[in-house]
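Example record for the data management plan.
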Amino acid sequence: MIKHAADFTHELAALSQGAAFVVGVDEVGRGPLCGPVTAAAVRLDPTRIPAGLADSKALTAARREALFAELQQVAQIAVAHASVEEIDTLNILRASHLAMERAVAALSADFALIDGNMIPRNLSCRGLAIIKGDAKSLSIAAASICAKVTRDRLMVDLAQQYPGYGWEMNAGYPTKAHLSALLNLGVTPVHRRSFKPVHNILYQEK
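Corresponding structural encoding:
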């Protein structure tokens, strides 16, 4: 089976239908046990698209960093978060959509290509949901890189405030080392209390 690389087809289709400001949108951080969920919206300049743009999961950390630096020079980018408190109050899906809505609103876009199968309910413009969009749309791929690099950096900062959980390596995902630290060191203020492993420890402590 031939695997096609992400391209600019969806963006061009939206532009041809009257959209003037098209952004790709993606989020990162649904699975971790701690920290915010982060979304990015990116408007690419069709004449200055960085070479090698791809889904952030398919790239090395060094390549993501290099592409992020390049995107900051040639694209319009907005990154937004939904907090741990918002995740625990709303649920992770709604919180991730809230982060997306904030990122899109920050760029005043009029059309958004969204990674996934749902359009956030309070999106400030028209949108199209694209399953596996980060592998199909260059704008969504760019957004996946911006969201991932930003959140990874944030988790490195949090790892310095709360050492021992390995967040600089695991970005808060439930690795063996993270789960072990959770049991030994306890729950931090930036852990998501609505997530089962965290909830179970808190429940056992009571």
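Summary line stored alongside the record: Residues 138-161 form the longest helix (24 residues).
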